[in-house]
Amino acid sequence: MKQICVDDGQELSLQYGCQFYEVSAAENFAGVSLAFQSLLREARSVQLLKALPIRRKLGVNSVSKVLGNIFGKNSKGDRKKRPSLSI
Question: Where are the domains of the chain?
Answer without folding.
Answer: 6-51
